[in-house]
């Protein structure tokens, strides 16, 4: 019985994550998680490094969500971004930018 507890808690945690993802509401506008990141200097550099097609897709999603927001509408349910389809497309670039910035700061201290 003790061996089943981690599996059950894992399913429970996944269920909570999906519930929270849907409660945030950005998926109802067709946005992905990385579309909602606050744009500081690191994020702007990561966006600059994105491939052009991913950057254009991001701009389209943001423009569409702004339009829907102004009209006080949401997308039809079949067009919502699903938890399973949401990929962290910006995270690898952002991690690289942060690592480079920290390395540069360490280098400047010496």
TrEMBL record:
Tell me one Pfam family matched here. Answer: UCR_14kD
Q: Does the keyword Transport apply?
A: yes
Q: Which SUPFAM superfamilies match?
A: 14 kDa protein of cytochrome bc1 complex (Ubiquinol-cytochrome c reductase) (SSF81524)
User: Has UniProt tagged this entry with the keyword Transport?
Assistant: yes
Tell me the domain of life.
Eukaryota
Could you list this entry's UniProt keywords, alphabetically sorted.
Electron transport, Membrane, Mitochondrion, Mitochondrion inner membrane, Respiratory chain, Transport
One Gene Ontology term of the biological-process aspect is:
mitochondrial electron transport, ubiquinol to cytochrome c
Which GO terms of the cellular component aspect does the record hold?
Answer: mitochondrial inner membrane; respiratory chain complex III
Its record classes its membrane topology as: Peripheral membrane protein
Location of the protein in the cell? Mitochondrion inner membrane
Whom does it interact with, and what assembly results? Answer: Component of the ubiquinol-cytochrome c oxidoreductase (cytochrome b-c1 complex, complex III, CIII), a multisubunit enzyme composed of 11 subunits. The complex is composed of 3 respiratory subunits cytochrome b, cytochrome c1 and Rieske protein UQCRFS1, 2 core protein subunits UQCRC1/QCR1 and UQCRC2/QCR2, and 6 low-molecular weight protein subunits UQCRH/QCR6, UQCRB/QCR7, UQCRQ/QCR8, UQCR10/QCR9, UQCR11/QCR10 and subunit 9, the cleavage product of Rieske protein UQCRFS1. Component of the ubiquinol-cytochrome c oxidoreductase (cytochrome b-c1 complex, complex III, CIII), a multisubunit enzyme composed of 3 respiratory subunits cytochrome b, cytochrome c1 and Rieske protein, 2 core protein subunits, and additional low-molecular weight protein subunits. The complex exists as an obligatory dimer and forms supercomplexes (SCs) in the inner mitochondrial membrane with cytochrome c oxidase (complex IV, CIV).
Function according to Swiss-Prot or TrEMBL: Component of the ubiquinol-cytochrome c oxidoreductase, a multisubunit transmembrane complex that is part of the mitochondrial electron transport chain which drives oxidative phosphorylation.
Q: Which family does it belong to?
A: Belongs to the UQCRB/QCR7 family.
**What is the protein's name according to its record?**
Cytochrome b-c1 complex subunit 7
Which lineage is the organism of this entry classified under, starting from the top rank?
Answer: Eukaryota, Metazoa, Chordata, Craniata, Vertebrata
